[in-house]
Amino acid sequence: MALWSIPRSRKRLTIFGAYGGINAGDEMILRALLQRIVRESGADQHARVIVDRLPKGPSLTKDYVARDVVPVSFRDIARSLSGSWGSDLVIGGGQVIDGLNGIKYPLLQLAQALISKASGGQVSILGASCARLENSGVRAVYARLFAACDAISARDEHSAQDIRAIGGTNLCPVKTEADLVFGMRDTITSNTPLADRKLILLAPHHAPSLPLTDVEASALLLEKLSKLGGDHEVRLILHDDRPDFDTHFVRRLRAIMGDAMPSASNPKTTDETIALYQQARMVISVRMHPIIIGACAGAACVPIKGSRKQEDLAGRIGLTTVALTDAASKSPEALQKWFDCLPDQTALRDLERLAK
């Protein structure tokens, strides 16, 4: 039996998550979630998506309108809450169980869930991970949310343990699956032989409150990667191009590297993201989703230390995380061996099955 499915008789679906064209990894999660819904319901499903930021441009037309998805900002409280009446609700994908901004975000999720339940809907948390849940108020709200759910799955065991600890005995079974993007492996897999690919992608991770990527170490690493030869092209890939996020990292990096700085790509749609990773020979990333997408595309992958979820991911696909400063200190000859850092194929098949 599927963990969560949409009854064929129901016509309305609301998805709540960190979507809206902000982050390439989150947009891939949304696409994977919609594909899973189609597999489980047997038909395309019109959906409203409660987003962090309203998408625009190619993101809106290709990843939302073309897939019969209507984005609604969570800041539009009246519209986002009224849309949950008579609708099944999925709080899905990525780090959506999060106390970063205190109690406001969890309260909005709980309100969506209570409205859905009061009108006969099902409520599910699907493929989620947890962070910053130390605040007692945040934990109290999430305890109510978890109790309202008909199904809960986490994308890593640490998050599942957090949910069980907060929810106690008054909640449905909590399952551990895999990140939803693994379920798109058959879509992401590249037809280009690995030996014919030329791109070496470095994905930084910078946020105003969480600058995980050291700029000086990155500059040194990029300089050494450019000397690997073999007609390879080193390129930055930005998963979050907001001015204070990865784009800020690029500005600082350019101030250090000048003309020696590699070009940067900022994919605007999920199709652009997939196409770029399909040409990657190697993916080096502080972020988790570049490693997932790169692994699904068949690239060599080097996960850089930075978070608990990165460590969990590396362990699940048979890789070892590397500190960025240690990576920057390696010789070009040592870096050449990274081309052999291929994820465990059996593990990838298992994760694909779990994600589906």
Q: How far do the termini sit from each other? A: 12 Å
Q: Widest sheet: strand order?
A: 3-2-1-4-5-6-7
Based on DSSP secondary structure assignment, what is the total number of beta strands? 12
How many distinct helices? Answer: 15
Beta content: 15-25%
Please tell me the overall pLDDT. 92
Residue runs with pLDDT of under 50 for 5 or more positions = 1-10
Main sheet: strands, sense, barrel: 7 strands, parallel
Shape: globular
Summarize the helix and strand pattern as letters: EHEHEHEHEHEHEHEHEHEHEHEHHHH
Gyration radius (Cα, Å) is: 20 Å
Helix-strand makeup class:
alpha/beta
Helix content: 40-55%
Describe what this molecule looks like in 3D.
There is one protein chain. The longest helix is centred in the N-terminal third of the chain and has 18 residues, at 24-41. The protein has helices at residues 24-41, 57-63, 77-82, 104-118, 136-148, 157-167, 185-188, 215-225, 246-257, 270-278, 288-297, 308-316, 324-328, 332-336, 345-355, and strands at 13-16, 47-51, 69-73, 88-98, 123-131, 151-154, 174-176, 199-203, 233-237, 263-265, 280-285, 300-303. It contains 15 helices and twelve strands. Residues 1-10 have low confidence and may be disordered. The chain is an alpha/beta fold and 356 residues long. β5 (123-131), α5 (136-148) and β6 form a beta-alpha-beta unit. 41% of the residues lie in helices and 18% in strands. It starts with 12 loop residues before the first strand and ends with a helix. The strands form two sheets. The protein has a seven-stranded parallel beta sheet with strand order 3-2-1-4-5-6-7. It has a five-stranded parallel beta sheet with strand order 10-9-8-11-12. α8 packs across α9.
